[in-house]
Design a protein that fits this description.
Strand content: 15-25%
Distance between the termini: 27 Å
Radius of gyration: 20 Å
Helix content: 25-40%
Number of helices: 10
């Protein structure tokens, strides 16, 4: 790798940063993070960054020690410090991007938080933002004026799905909004496995936290069904889709997501026998999930290989086309 490359991983994403560093065969640069008694903080690079191409790895999920707000603020301030120190280009690599779910107005006077977060990154001097399996890729790309890279988790998930062998497969979107995500995974699976993969979708409407909708479309009888979504929160959406598929004759159900938030209630919902396995990347460590039935059926896929390859290509100004399904 070029001597102009600098890699940083902020507190809370240290482990993922070390994995990316190892795959790139390039060390993490030194930095300092200090907390003050009143809750304020600072972060600064200790290695020189003048004229460098800098990548800051920081997944913006809440917990276990900092809220999403804390992590976002620290990342923004650190980007500003890097630019002030003369960095030529700064790219934020945020595998989980906070506030990405609020990307449009669904009620009068609703905030469009995705756009506000984009403005904060731009104000800090950020040159590019890379994220993994963003909630709405079109809203994400339209919110930013700087370069916005929306990676898909499909290359990471396909390896696990291939282990199903030659049995019939069907990819299910648990709601209409995720139809494109499911279609793209299905097309990628067909290309890799060299055979037809079925598709289906479940209806879901959410208003004031209440989920409704009973429509299910697709032929799932006798198939191993792959329910694909961007994230697991409490798991209710995935369980609804899994039960619907089982009721229509699905032989087995895998839930595949990029981000396992596993909020309170997930350990109960996902223990439902309708779901056989849960597959998630380590973009968000499963620190909220206690030992038990869900942990036993959870398969974690490392995100570092995809992130490392993306950083390598960005640094070398190479195309990302085959990495980007979106």
């Amino acid at each position: 790798m070029s001597s102009r490359l600098r890699l940083f991983a902020l507190k809370g994403t240290d482990s993922l940063g070390r994995d990316v560093s190892r795959l790139l065969a390039h060390p993490l640069s030194a930095h300092e993070e200090r907390d003050f008694e009143d809750g304020e903080h600072k972060a600064r690079p200790l290695d020189p960054v003048g004229g460098a191409d800098v990548y800051v790895i920081h997944s913006l999920h809440g917990g276990p020690d900092q809220s999403a707000n804390d992590k976002l603020c620290r990342l923004l301030f650190f980007i500003g410090a890097l630019k002030d120190a003369g960095a030529r280009r700064v790219t934020a690599v945020a595998p989980y991007l906070c506030y990405a779910r609020k990307d449009r107005r669904t009620k009068p006077n609703d905030p469009v938080t995705t756009r506000y977060v984009a403005a904060l990154f731009e104000a800090s001097g950020c040159d590019a933002v890379v994220t993994l399996e963003v909630h709405n890729e079109a809203a994400f790309e339209n919110a930013f004026r700087c370069r916005a890279v929306a990676l898909t988790a499909a290359p990471l998930l396909i390896g696990q799905i291939k282990a199903t062998g030659d049995e019939p497969l069907c990819v299910i979107s648990p709601d209409l909004g995720g139809g494109k995500r499911a279609d793209l995974l299905r097309e990628a699976l067909e290309k890799v496995m060299g055979r037809r993969i079925g598709k289906a979708f479940a209806e879901k409407h959410r208003s004031a936290g209440v989920v409704s909708g009973d429509l299910f479309v697709g032929e799932v009888g006798g198939a191993t069904c792959i329910i694909v979504d961007d994230l697991i929160s409490t798991g209710g959406t995935l369980v609804r889709a899994a039960r619907a598929a089982r009721a229509r004759g699905a032989r087995r159900v895998l839930a595949c997501v990029a981000h396992g938030l596993f909020m309170p209630g997930a350990e109960t919902a996902l223990a439902d026998p309708a779901i056989d396995r849960v597959i998630a990347t380590d973009s968000v460590p499963a620190f909220r999930l206690p030992a038990g039935p869900v942990r036993d059926k959870l398969d974690i896929v490392p995100a570092a290989p995809l992130l490392a390859e993306t950083i390598r290509r960005l640094h070398e100004d190479k195309a990302l086309t085959d990495l980007l399904v979106f």
